[in-house]
Amino acid sequence: MSTWIPLWLHKLGSPPTFYRFAGAVRPWAMGLALLFGVIGLYGGLVLAPPDYQQGDAYRIIFIHVPSAWMSMFIYAAMGVAAFVALVWRMKLAEVVAMESAPIGAAFTFVTLVTGSLWGKPMWGTWWTWDARLTSELVLLFLYLGVIGLYHAFEDRRQGARAASFLAIIGVINVPIVHYSVTWWNTLHQGSTVDIFGHSKMPWDMLWPLLLMTLATKAYYAASLCHRARTDLLALEGGKDWVRQIAEAEAGR
Amino acid sequence: MSSLQHFFAMGGYAGYVWPAYAVFFAVLIADNVAPRLRRRRILRELRGRLARQAARVRRPPSSSVTP
């Protein structure tokens, strides 16, 4: 047992093995995301009662908060992958880091737009330069910076290394986003859900939110598998295993 | 008001709740379509490159010099 796990991990680092592995994982991850998503949204939009202060407007929480958590979670995952890529020069870690960035940027964008749509009826404004909102906007720019820097180089691996470096420096913004509501006096409310303690939210509203959190996590896994597979095809274009796939899909 | 109408009205906040959900799903769908299109383009370009290589092997460049 102590030998086959490192051996398996080592083999998983090889592009054709990872390509097959990700292809096997993706349908399951997407299936879980859809299952949790459908149940979670039914619970959130239909079963959960309206909020006593915010009425039905609070129902934006079921996509806003999971997206916000994903924007930070994916950044942290990208930071770890970028660190592995820089230290051990592992090609697969570069792929995971660089293909995480667009997914994280997508969730950050969703967080900002849904937050804006929630802020208008509740705060009376689409946007305010509040610490939470501003740091989340900076997070979006960091994602865009990583994506832009990656594509600015002629050599893809050189670009991935430069962008990995930026990704690692940007990790500093993740705790700033998280603690912004405690460190500064913000218009944005503090956290309602505490995984390790008592959540200030009734169970009827909490379980759909937690299911949506799981759904977005599973979605990230599925999307990352999809993107990493595609990127491996581009990186390994000259190799035999990619040629076989190209020829097998010629009819389509 | 029927229960379905009541549901879509979102207590008067329909103009905020539904666009938020629309953006969420539109972004995720775009996130799924983008790698699919990229994958198709990569494989198409690779097949083109392989076909050109195969054509060069069949017809060596020296044949064009002879009259």
Concise account of the structure shown:
The complex is a heterodimer of chains A (252) and B (67). In chain A, 76% of the residues lie in helices and 0% in strands.
SS-derived structural category of chain A: mainly alpha
The number of distinct helices of chain B, counting runs of at least 4 residues, comes to: 2
Identify the overall geometry of chain B. rod-shaped
Report the span from N to C terminus of chain A.
43 Å
Q: What's the rounded overall pLDDT mean of chain B?
A: 87
Q: What is the CATH architecture term of chain A?
A: Up-down Bundle
How would you sum up the global shape of chain A?
globular
Question: Could you characterize what this model shows?
Answer:
The complex is a heterodimer of chains A (252) and B (67). By secondary structure, chain A is mainly alpha-helical. Chain A is 76% helix and 0% strand. By secondary structure, chain B is an all-alpha fold. Chain B has two helices and no strands. The radius of gyration of chain B is 27 Å and the shape is rod-shaped.
How is this fold's topology laid out?
The complex is a heterodimer of chains A (252) and B (67).
Chain A: H1 4-12, H2 15-47, H3 61-88, H4 91-123, H5 131-151, H6 156-170, H7 173-183, H8 203-235, H9 240-248
Helix pairs in contact in A: 2-8, 3-4, 3-6, 3-8, 4-5, 4-6, 4-8, 5-6, 5-7
Chain B: H1 3-9, H2 14-58
Top keywords for this entry?
heterodimer; A: about 250 residues; mainly alpha; Four Helix Bundle (Hemerythrin (Met), subunit A); about 75% helix; about 0% strand; B: mainly alpha; about 80% helix; rod-shaped
